[in-house]
Amino acid sequence: MAPPDTRTQLLDAAEHLFAERGFKGTSVRAITELAHANLAAVGYHFGSKAELLAAVTRRVIEPITAAQTAGLDRLLAQTPDPSVTDLVEAFAGPMFDQMRAGDERGARTSRLIMRIFGDPSDEVRAWTGSVEATARDRYLSAFTRALPDLSPDELHFRIRGILAVAAVDRADLHNQPPAATPLPSDQARRWAITFLTAAMTAPPTKP
Amino acid sequence: MAPPDTRTQLLDAAEHLFAERGFKGTSVRAITELAHANLAAVGYHFGSKAELLAAVTRRVIEPITAAQTAGLDRLLAQTPDPSVTDLVEAFAGPMFDQMRAGDERGARTSRLIMRIFGDPSDEVRAWTGSVEATARDRYLSAFTRALPDLSPDELHFRIRGILAVAAVDRADLHNQPPAATPLPSDQARRWAITFLTAAMTAPPTKP
DNA sequence: GTTCGATTTAAACGAACGTATGAATGAAGT
DNA sequence: ACTTCATTCATACGTTCGTTTAAATCGAAC
Asked: Which pLDDT score is estimated for A179?
């Protein structure tokens, strides 16, 4: 086992705490304590608490958008017009994959993503997701070809619906009794694909 | 116009700021300043900042669950087994109605609800939504009768999907350019009903 | 006009916050 | 052995936080 890198431990601790208590609700002292590091370590390695959040966010988002992009490339290599089902699977799947591991970290990642997408403050939104925007645009045009009857606005609404379902997913587990059966980890993923595919293929809303 | 009640102005200001900046991100000083009240007014009228949040939350959630309950009563008066479409409309509709007015307050309410449902901290969860739980349970059994092929767990997942779509809805408007057309306020509602009805009526996921 | 309860006010409290600083530490290069 | 450089450390600074207190204000009841 490699000696635990302080920088990485700070990222881990911050990811944990930001997801659980939010950005404002997490103190630099709590982060450094959980990471067994000195209080000044955040300033030294990241410059500020806000820049640490940006680094955490990038680390969580990047593999998701990478998998989304790779999945779309794979689909487009087979046919120029993939089915809605395939597009939903390739777009929503990676979010669930990232939220799965360990069932503990999954719910935390889910909460973190929801906090990121739901917070309009500058600090939370400062991670500059240009890659993420590009991936979303590519899916937008692929969905447009797969659903030609849908108005751009309604399509856009539906894609946001995908994000909503994926982000909330297990984020509110704390609302109810701790789940009768500790459901197999990929079940939520499959339920979501069913749910979202049906939703995406619905006929356009009549005006 | 009635003289502006201090207590009400505090609720209004707090609702505004909690939605925009979150609970931890909002200071009592910011609330009282926006409400043109004294700093100690929060302590006097509500006891603490946390109890003010509980009051704000109750004021936002109560009319929604009331409308949900009334809508279900109305459906059940006509037939013991309402259709999925009707159930979705009666369950999700009131959320959008509450998030509509003025397009400004709508997005704020949406954000506030998302923050409430996504925050596991005790302060945010302390509003004791027993009425809200009752309404959800009644819809759960109604949906169970309307979708007898669905396992309880998957049904439960789908109902959470409704909440997700409704809560996120306009909450992330700040992500993209300020909407090409200032879409008519009930359009999101109708798109959501289409989206969610199709999603709810999807056949069960095969095991 | 005085009393009284409810409300508002200014001021202060200690605690916790993010950040900055300069000295210790320790391994690597010479 | 000595220098170098990156990292860690203890400590302190100034701000802002939620809450509390006691005095001031005010309309209504008597």
From this structure: 43
